[in-house]
Amino acid sequence: MADPAIIVVGGGLTGAATALALAEADWQVTLVESGSRPQTVAPDQAPLIRVSTLNPAVRNMMERLGAWQLLPEARVGKVDQMRVWERSGSELVFSAEDAGLPRLGNVVENETLRAALWQRLTEFPNVDLRTGVAVRRVDDGDRRLRVTLENGDRFHCALLLAADGARSPIRESAGIECSTWDYGQNGLVMTVETGSSHENTAWQRFLPDGPLAFLPLPGNRCSIVWSLPTAEAEDGLDQSAEELQEALKTAFEGRLGDVRIVSERGAFPLLRRSAERFVSGRVVLLGDAAHTVHPLAGQGANLGLLDAAALAEVLERGRQRGLQPDHPTPLRQFERWRRSDVEIMAESLHQLWFLYRWRVPPFPAARQFGTRLINRNRWLRRRLIDHASGFGGRVPRLAQPQV
Ligand SMILES: Cc1cc2nc3c(=O)[nH]c(=O)nc-3n(C[C@H](O)[C@H](O)[C@H](O)COP(=O)(O)OP(=O)(O)OC[C@H]3O[C@@H](n4cnc5c(N)ncnc54)[C@H](O)[C@@H]3O)c2cc1C
Questions:
Q1: Residue 213, pLDDT score
Q2: Residue 235 DSSP SS3
Q3: pLDDT in tens, 55-66
Q4: Could you give the domains of the chain?
Q5: Average pLDDT of the residues in 45-62
Q6: Using an 8 Å Cβ cutoff, are 190 and 289 in contact?
Q7: What is the mean pLDDT of residues 114-133?
């Protein structure tokens, strides 16, 4: 196969979506993934614990890329409402109806979506998929980059897209620094069955140590994300199922009745990270390689997927003006566009996290006042939902509502 114009490193959600968006736009793409190719998830397979709440903008994008249509319905949860509270008697309620949207979001296992994206990628003759091999080194030539894989294969390309995750080896080798805020917490995740119906609602309670979310999956299942101090989250991995179920029920004020754990458990460190540059010469960072945010509003994967849509768009506009993919003009546009959207989101989540941690007066009263204000003001609710739905800033064409 001829040298690709663009190499994407990392075939997680961000990298796979990026490669697919570029393939659709007729670029010659090579996708390099050090792990194995994702396997299609059967409708009745045991639940997978890494899930993402996809916002409506990302759902539009997934539909346009033909990946949404490949998701088994039995693996996709629906979010029609969101309820957020700290103590009983005062809660924030957001609904799809408030925002004039058919749905607030969908809860999907990362691997299920990833498998659908990869399945679509196999349909493109202009995509070369390399799995089980990592990038060994990248050398900058005069006009192109030279990329060498661990197995000795070599390519020249105009542009290298690093979607190789939060610890991004490509970011490191490009010498791009990162600012990091460690929340000192882990997200304890698992799937549970609840005694009563979740009513297609994403439930989140802010506890003194951090938020506990019950995200709706098909049937009476919920995906749990519980932000806890690192040691406590690790204890949660070893606790007996009975003890942890009881702890979950109590922390959740029993709002969905009894809780039964039906999956394995995992704990993931919670960090806010931002690369000092998203673009360095012919290297572009996307997804977790460029930024990570606190999962309290389920936005991390959404941000990475919108990076993919935005990059495909600026490269296409550049091409229409006769520019090569490594031309600085479209890459600068990408950096400006995505940095402002990502920073606004990361900072809002950071402030929200702090706001709910203050237990001393006047903070609890201020939160109650804020809750009442938002509940009474439909316009304000709509603005907040727009932001979380991916429609707050400039929306990439791929993610715009279908007309
Ligand atoms: C507890 C928790 C809950 C979350 N909940 C949500 C949510 O509800 N909604 C949401 O939007 N987001 C959520 N997120 C965030 C979301 O999971 C991530 O933002 C997203 O999965 C990142 O995808 P990515 O493709 O950028 O990175 P990754 O998933 O890390 O993918 C990187 C890929 O690169 C590959 N790779 C690495 N190095 C190399 C190399 N040298 N060569 C080749 N390949 C390489 C890896 O094998 C991997 O496949 C959550 C995060 C946490 C921790």
A1: 97
A2: helix
A3: 999 999 999 999
A4: 6-50+110-179+271-383+394-399 (3.50.50.60)
A5: 96
A6: no
A7: 98
Is 179 buried (19+), middle (13-18) or exposed (0-12) by CB count in 10 A?
A: exposed
Neighbours of 201 (CB within 10 A): 23
Using alpha carbons, list the distances in angstroms from residue 100 to 66, 317, 354, 378.
24, 31, 30, 11
Helix (H) or strand (E) holding 273: strand 266-275
- The contacts of residue 111 (CB under 8 Å, 6+ apart) are 38, 41, 48, 50
Beta bridge partners of 76: 108
Q: State whether the beta carbon of 305 lies less than 6 angstroms from ligand 1.
A: no
Confirm or reject: Cβ of 60 under 6 Å from ligand 1. no
Q: Length of the chain, please?
A: 403
288 Cβ closer than 6 Å to some ligand 1 atom: yes
User: The tokens of 152 are what?
Assistant: 């000795």
Cα 282 to ligand 1 centre (Å) = 22
Residue 402 confidence class, pLDDT cut points 50, 70, 90: confident
Give the model's pLDDT for residue 1. Answer: 57
Contact of 8 with 130, CB cutoff 8 Å: no
Distance CA 24, CA 2 (A): 18
Structure tokens at 22: 């570029």
Structure tokens at 165: 């995750």
Distance CA(81)–CA(105), nearest Å, equals 9
**Order of strands across the sheet with 51-54?**
51-54, 105-109, 76-79
Tell me the CA–centroid distance for residue 172 and ligand 1, in Å: 17
pLDDT tens digits, one per residue of 294-330: 999 889 999 999 999 999 999 999 999 999 999 999 9
For the segment 179-190, what is each residue's pLDDT rounded down to a tens digit? 999 999 999 999
